[in-house]
Amino acid sequence: MDLAYLWFWIVGFLFVGYFVLDGFDFGVGMSLPFLGKDDVSRRQVINTIGPVWDLNETWVIVAGACLFAAFPEWYATLFSGFYLALLLILLALILRGVSFEYRHQRDSLRWKKGFDTMIVVGSAVPALLWGVAFANIVQGVPLDAAHEFTGSLLTLLNPYGLLGGLTTLLLFFTHGVYFVALKTDGQVAADARRLAGRAGLVTIVVAAAFLIWTVLLAFAEGRDLAVVTAALAAVAAVLLIASWISNARGREGWAFGFGAGTIVSAVLALWFALFPYVMPSSTDLANSLTIENASSTDYTLTIMSWAALIFLPLVLLYQGWTYWIFRKRITRSHIEKAAAVVH
User: Which helix (H) or strand (E) holds 5?
Assistant: First the structure.
């Protein structure tokens, strides 16, 4: 296989991992107003991702670095054309990270509520804008002959892009609430199961509309792997329904697993719909960026391939070990005991 095509799929793998892992982080953050009845329950919710949120976030850093090295033309067009949207995502991620670290520094209720609001906003903004960005990449954006984006932020806020953003927002929210139900006990877990049931129904409807639109787009544009896109969209729909049913039956682990599978299938459906382009032009298809004309030299890709072969398995092992160490539920009694020791 040509190395450029190999790296197209490696970058796709990295974004799949990022959306699955940081996706439930976003969902947990967005669930705070619904599940945090008091400070103990809010701490219980936040602590479910406390040991892993920053590790999950590194996936997007690695994905961005690989995109820069493997597909510099794609990186340049994407980050210049989507500059404002990506800047808002970056600021929101910084806001969320600061909030996790500073929330517990004072006992003031006003202090904590302020940072809780920042966590919600810092989770919701990326969850929405990542969907808008990827939907527009798949659909195509106006590019000139030099592969430069000729639109604006408003260009990205089209019906398909906004539906993509709403889909990722709801998918991540439901995914995160499943995770809270899996990782907590007592009232928080019970509230999370009920919330996931309600949110899951809305998510099924919105995600179905977006996936159907994506499949129709892939066939209308004559994309090479449109049939595979349709198959993956169908798998995503089945898994999403299975996650909702599992949650209704009180099977938190299965609900979370099926939810993760939904995100994997949905993101892969977008990736297959994009192939063989990396950024199609909506004005003139001849101006599109493809895997071949956007990639680095074979020498660069060869070095990257050896580095990935050595280091990627180590990173995956370390992350798996981290999740194993912090696999236990965050109980209310544990939070109360820790608070009593502090005071």
Answer: helix 3-35
Hey, is 149 helix, strand or coil? Answer: strand
Q: Which residue has the tokens 């009180």?
A: 250
Q: Considering Cα of 337, then 339, then 342, then 343, what sign does the dihedral take? A: negative
Read off the pLDDT of residues 262-316 as tens digits, 9 standing for 90 and up: 999 999 999 999 999 999 999 888 999 999 999 999 999 999 999 999 998 998 9
Closest CA to 72 of 297, 226, 236: 297
| In the chain, where the domains are located | 3-192+327-342
Query: Nearest 5°: phi and psi at 279?
Result: -160, 95
Q: Which letter does DSSP use for residue 141 in this model?
A: B
H helical segments located in 36-108: 39-47, 53-70, 72-81, 83-102
Tokens of 259: 């939810």
Nearest to 328 by CA among 180, 184, 196: 184
Q: Which two tokens stand for residue 55?
A: 């590790």
Residue-wise pLDDT for 28-86, tens only, equals 999 999 998 888 889 999 999 988 998 899 999 999 999 999 999 999 999 888 999 99
